[in-house]
């Protein structure tokens, strides 16, 4: 009996470092930014943000490739600082927020991409259509304690998509050639996370 207890104790002791290396982090929406940029009239870029978003990041510091990311973005929260344009973007011509109130990203693979960088492959769902995308990620940073005792980390990510791949096809041709809205959309994320408390 003592031998069995000793074996079990050894297994638990060996497993503890593995368990301790993985932690869950909640995205802090007040200190994070989900932005995008798209060409307008073939001459300039229009920038915007989604003001409401949430998500979790499971970070395995022992093996970062085992980490996972899940993000949900409220499409109705789009803001380009032009009310009329935002209303059009919420309409069935674009995001159709009444039918598709959220876009999501769920990671499927995390790979190292040099010192401090990662490539996170996952499923991006917009307008009811899911496509695989790759995020270029800087981070996550080292842990830092804020003045209120929360443990925080940060990360930056970027990718480019073709909006037509997600059914966002509205456009108008220009007399001088080209179109009103570009097809390529650059997406940037500045993420700050708070370590979840153990349950």
Automatic annotation (TrEMBL):
Residues 24-194 form the Lipid/polyisoprenoid-binding YceI-like domain. It comes from the Bacteria. SMART domains: YceI. Pfam families: YceI. InterPro entries: Lipid/polyisoprenoid-bd_YceI (IPR007372), TTHA0802/YceI-like_sf (IPR036761). Residues 1-20 form the signal peptide. Keywords: Signal. This is YceI family protein. It comes from Geoanaerobacter pelophilus.
